Amino acid sequence: MKRFMIFAVLLLSVAWVKAQEDMSTVWETKLGHQILWAGTSLEGEHSYAASDKEMSLFDNKSGKVIWEKSFSEMAPKLRKIDELIPFWASSTIFLFDRKLGKDQIACINLETGKNLWTTDKYQELDESMITYIEEEDCFAITLKKELVYIRAQTGEELWSTEKFKGVVGRYYYSGSDHTLTMVNFVPGTIAALLTGFKNQIAKIDLKTGEILWENTYVGRAERKVISRQFVYDLNVTDGKVFLMLNGMQVYDYKTGAKIWSAAYDFTPERVVGKPIGVKVFGVYGAVADPIIDGQDIYVLDMLSRSKQYVKKYDLNTGKLLWTSPEIKDAKAIPGMKVVDGKVLLQIGGVVEKQYIKTRRVGDQIITETVIEFENVNPCGIQALNSSDGKLVWESERFRKGITNMISFNGNTIVCSGKELYSIDIQTGKEKYEVPVSKGGVGLATQIQPFKDDVIVVIGEKGVSTFNASSGELQNSGKYRTSFLEDRVDNIVVMKTDKADIGTFDLNTCKYKDFKARTGAITTLSRDGNFVYVYEKKVVTKLSTH
């Protein structure tokens, strides 16, 4: 009997090891240089890897190196690089050799490694100061006193203007008259360089650089400091320019005149504390974006920390339809949804922090980029009537914490980190309450929808799924302590602090593992089928299936 039990235990151990199999290698390529920078093209055709003296381009399908060159071979004036910036849409990459006021910039064709042009005319540039205008294959470059417009393939300067200050952010391109309607912003890295900056939305003639009209806007347009995503949106519809930034601001597309505005000033960095040793810092998701529902728009008005309201406007005219009662003592309102005649508000909960910090390890100064999340109190859920803005109900259940709230396919789910709650949005009562611990993946850091009726719990140690209608546990995959790196459809990538990655299939929550070297760079392909891992001199393509 004892031998049988030992044999059974061995069988279970083998089965467990087999279930948690390693990711299969599609190919592995060893380069002739170290990897300090790496990137995978959005189209998935090829990728690059570079040290400070050499660079390689390789084929994503086969791993075959297309070319490998030293930077001095590509651009004789460059001996090393301090930064590189790819522009995949134009098949170019900028190389920077910093030389104390005599910076050398080379623009290289990514497909061939051929030098297109080199210049020392533009000094103290970084990634945040260059915007690629794909429709014209040109670069808009922000300098201290002017905006310069150049051809991507030749470096030819077409025009410059001192009337537009700051970096070109979100824009709307019109091919019929070659104009650009754009919003400016100042990243923290160049704030000290610019003089006479003001919030500016403008329409510019790309043939001449003439400013056709300009106006001001409220708020701070910016990109996230690490992931580089814009935190605002700009579009043109029915002859109007809609700027979604700290509310909504609407302009006439032909003249630039402001039609209406429901905007406010808000400083999200005050919501959470800034870590010690941090140079660049940003807080995101502290205030929910406006909700457009048909011809109505719902806007959170953050007048101050003590005066906050929801306001409903007519989208076309800007007429104020109603103002809600004051939402008191809310440091953050990350979630707002309009569902079945109710406006649901998530007060408090998880907000995103991105920052760059430095620390000393022995004689070295280590620079780290960090994306993490912090729970902001106080927390709660409120429901307002969408017809008149009156408070219908308020739940005290979530006073101790919320990760986030999701609504899909008739279900509204709120996660406290420890529990999942299905909420009846008409009454605020719980349809069910389910412990997240059933999934066995630690506390929830966030929840996401999947398919029509599945809740995905991103845990501290893995991923689990629950039925949204019943709350029943469906599947679970326990992993090491990790955080969400990426998701494409049914594939979720979890990453540890040591750069190990687990790729989970949400249909089963089974995962495949890859133990990477600390500091490895990992990129999930657009279709979710592959992960590219860059470590030391080796590039590995792994299958997620």
Verbal overview:
By secondary structure, the chain is mainly beta. It has a domain at 266-402: Thrombin, subunit H. Strands 22, 27, 28, 29 and 30 form a 5-stranded antiparallel β-sheet that branches. Strands 1-45-44-43 form a 4-stranded antiparallel β-sheet, with no helix packed on it. Strand 40 and strand 41 form a beta hairpin. It starts with a helix and ends with a strand. The model is unreliable at 1-19 (pLDDT under 50).
What proportion of the residues is helical, as a percent range? Answer: under 10%
User: How would a crystallographer describe the biggest sheet?
Assistant: 5 strands, antiparallel
The CATH architecture of the domain at 266-402 comes to Beta Barrel
Number of DSSP strand runs: 45
**What does the overall shape look like?**
globular
- N-to-C CA distance: 39 Å
- Please give the CATH class of the domain at 266-402: Mainly Beta
Number of helices: 2
Question: Strand-residue fraction?
Answer: over 45%
Which structural class fits the helix and strand makeup?
Answer: mainly beta
CATH topology of the domain at 266-402, which one? Thrombin, subunit H
Low-confidence stretches at least 5 residues in length (pLDDT < 50)? 1-19
What Rg is obtained from the alpha carbons, in whole angstroms? 26 Å
Q: What's the average pLDDT?
A: 87
Entry keywords:
545 residues, Thrombin, subunit H, five-stranded antiparallel β-sheet, four-stranded antiparallel β-sheet, 2 helices, disordered N terminus
